[in-house]
From TrEMBL:
SUPFAM superfamilies: ATPase domain of HSP90 chaperone/DNA topoisomerase II/histidine kinase, Homodimeric domain of signal transducing histidine kinase
PANTHER family in the cross-refs: PEROXIDE STRESS-ACTIVATED HISTIDINE KINASE MAK3, SENSOR HISTIDINE KINASE
Protein name from the UniProt record: histidine kinase
EC code: 2.7.13.3
GO molecular function ontology, one term from the record: phosphorelay sensor kinase activity
Coiled-coil annotated spans: 215-242
Amino acid sequence: MFRSLSGRFLILTVIFVMLAEILIFLPSVARFRQEYLLDRLERAQIASLALLADDELDPDLEAELLENARVYNVVLHRDDMRQLVLASPIPETISASFDLREATAWSLIGQAVRRLLTPRDEVLRVIGVPSSDAGMLIEVTMSSAPLRMAMLDYGMRILLLSAVISVITAILLFFAVRRLLVTPIHDVVAAVQTYAAAPEDARRIIEPRSGITEVREAEEALRSMQVELTAALKQKERLAQLGQGVAKISHDLRNILTSAQLFGDRIETSEDPVVRRLAPKLMNSVSRAINLSEATLAFGRSEEPPPKLSRFLLEDVVHDVIESERLAAGDHDISFAEDVPSGLQVRGDPEQIYRVLSNLVRNARQAIVATGEPGEICIHAEEDAEYWRIEVRDTGPGLPPKARDHLFEPFQGYTSKGGSGLGLTISLELLRGHGGDLKLIETGEGGCTFEIRLPQAAALTV
């Protein structure tokens, strides 16, 4: 119980209420002591009236008056005279004197604490102002033992009352906290546990119901997280199913392309100059398709092969990409430009870099064709001390907001109707295999610019 939130709150409530009662206890006991001493002065004054009425007082009556007032002697100051009105033997010398006329709150509290901590009986002198202006002041001597006993009795009653109040308050707060805070938290925990058992089941998503602002905010945040997680799980499940289907298709497609490659070898022997010129490009495309099918099969087995790094001329890869996309553009008014320094060599996997550039240029071409307006696509390359930088620029319509928000997410960041958004996802993954990166530099009505960065320094090995 005491490890729970409500149990600890119960303990803290009792402790804090007791601390508050202790802070109240000290001034209360000090006030009680002052009232006790004033009562002794008043009783002594009343006892002294008998002597003022009759100068000669029977000793037994005098002793009875002092016993009733619980003092040893009484001194009145009146008419500029100090008069010992009632007197009896004092058992010992006076230990302390207290003038109630000049007492402050802090001095009263300090004197009360010292009296409680001093068990020894002492003789005290107490000075105060007589009631009803019966003289200038009154002075009595008294024993400290009855005063301390009265203070202890009063203090015990105060502490007992404080304990009862603290327990009742703590119990009420305990049930209030359980009802208003602990129960809603338990409901949230139960909702989390229920959802964790089957996160793909949308029926298990929590419905915010709490009337407490903080708990409701927690429920709404949990619901938002659960909705996103459920959607992500469903998407991953679809991707897994798609991966299996693509792997099967790639397996058969690889066999078909292998047969096409054999037929292509025979085409290369044709005497037709046009066929001889286009045959190498056809064979390169078929070879890349076969490599892509094999890579897809490996990816379906979660064994995406690492890039085969080598030095190659970037302009050759860029030229192949441009030529393929120029043929795909057909009669559309799209111009292609290659701004690659002659002889620029980069280190990477040429087949994977071709796939990255092909994806970017194809996206740009499709975006321009969709507008029905003429456009331009340019591949620019440069190098510095750290990176090879390749930019793919186009004059298309720019990316829509959804594509910008989910740029590298599969089936989310597509830019054209019927697209899948896989091109950029695949490109980023391939570049990260090189230790590089792909970023959108700018987009707008003037077109898009993507930047490819490939590190020049080799990765450190241990």
